[in-house]
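Long-time lurker, finally posting.

We've been working with DUF3822 family protein (Mucilaginibacter mali) and I want a structural starting point before designing mutants. I don't trust myself to interpret raw outputs, so I'm hoping someone here can both generate the structure tokens and explain anything notable. Sequence follows.
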Amino acid sequence: MSEYSFTYKSDSFSVAKAHDSVLFIKACKAEFSILIAEDGRLLAWKDKCALADLAGDEDLGEILTAPFKKAVVGLTPEALTLVPTELYDADNVLDYARYLDVKAEDRVFASQLDAENQVICRIDHAVTDALASRFNLRDTVPAYRGWLAAIAKGEPLNHGIYLDVNCGQVTMANFNGGKLRFYNTFSVSDVNDILYYALFVTQQLDLQADYTSLIVSGVCPASDFDKLNEFFRMVKYNDLKAIDVPMGVPAHQVMALASLA
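Top reply, 14 upvotes:
Generated this for you. Predicted structure of DUF3822 family protein:
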């Protein structure tokens, strides 16, 4: 039995029963997180693992090579652009990627985001190189596709900015009539950066901050809400549950990871 140290682990979790559960991995430039679930219930979760652990941690390797029913690997983009599905041409992916300041060592991935949009992502090569040591990159998915789909199904507010804070980035989305209106990601280091981009996006969408709510998931302490509340109508954690979690595990913190699809 693996001695790997999880952030949370259920007493019922066993690598020997991996065939009954699903492994979720969400990777970004600096780190990755893993979550294991069975029938919509959290079995194990590890937050903020170093990318080097994918190849170098033997105990983690025992987990990752277990015969899971399914493994879903989500790639967090450093930059992205959306292309309407009706205008998308797979032969022109590199042309679309020119908007992303792609460097020679970067990797470009194109995937369907929803029924109306394709997403073109720039991914740091360190992420793909680390993942390739364990997984087939052809099986990867956009890290926030499931997160966006979960929000869209939950009757999102037209005057709401949905945020997920992870890996030194804030991912933001806005919907109109249940359809995606805005989606992008920005590098941040503290709440001041989050506030700056929240106000920037609000202005770009021609919304008024004092009539706009921020719905937050990911790693954002409640103490940061005081700063954000000075400008926005309301700031709250996203209460959508992608998975059943035990007391002590913040549902909003694992929402994007558990929503991978």
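Before you design anything, note these points.
Residues 79-123 form one domain.
The chain has a mean pLDDT of 95.
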